[in-house]
Amino acid sequence: MEFLLKDFQIERYRKIYGKEFFEFLKILPQSIRINTIKISVKDFKKKAEERSWKLKGLEWYDEGFYVEASENISKTIEHQIGYFFIQNVSSMLPPLILEPKKDEIILDLCAAPGAKSTQIAQLMENTGVIIANDVKVKRIRALKGNLQRMGVVNTIITMMDGSKFWKTGLKFEKILLDVPCSGSGSLNPRIFQQIGKYTLNYLTKIQKRLLISASKCLEKD
Length: 221
Ligand SMILES: C[S@@+](CC[C@H](N)C(=O)[O-])C[C@H]1O[C@@H](n2cnc3c(N)ncnc32)[C@H](O)[C@@H]1O
Fold this sequence. Notes:
By secondary structure, the protein is an alpha/beta fold. It has helices at residues 7-17, 21-25, 41-50, 77-80, 93-98, 115-123, 137-149, 189-194, 197-217, and strands at 30-34, 54-57, 64-68, 84-86, 105-108, 129-134, 155-159, 174-176.
């Protein structure tokens, strides 16, 4: 993996993760979230058994699983019809912390491609409203595809610069702000490879602007 990275990147990731970092990358497990809008966990487990997939449940989230499979799970019919979403375990945490409830109105300011929006929809049992915003048209297409695939019907897509979203005057009690980032936490060397110093500087600036905008959209107590 090291050959994919530039010297300053190697140094940066070693500082964040320690010496074992590159060993750790070699054993990255695949994880999925079962989409309870379309199938129960019990029925999905049966399907996984039929396909000889090994599932290992997360201790803190009933719908989250590590998967071992000898086939490409993204190419299966179960994936195409939205029985599950391939999602990093860490990415399952923010929607759980947000605690979306049935019939609430929630803003997801940087939503594409929709891993967390679709998880929020599932936690809301497809009720209430999610405003799923993103600035990039290509990513909005992916978001739309994922919402459809997962059977989500409570979501409105908007396309605007999130740092200006506060100008709409809309207020929300709950906002998910999943800013564009360096991918340092994704443990994916291909993502690390794309990040240079210039991009890091740009990202920190836009992250601050998005945070200010999101905080202005929050309903005050
Ligand atoms: C970390 S990704 C979001 C992942 C998404 N929340 C999910 O769980 O699938 C960050 C997103 O922010 C979007 N983005 C970047 N700049 C933005 C801006 N100024 N306003 C709104 N979205 C922005 C990117 O297009 C990208 O889709």
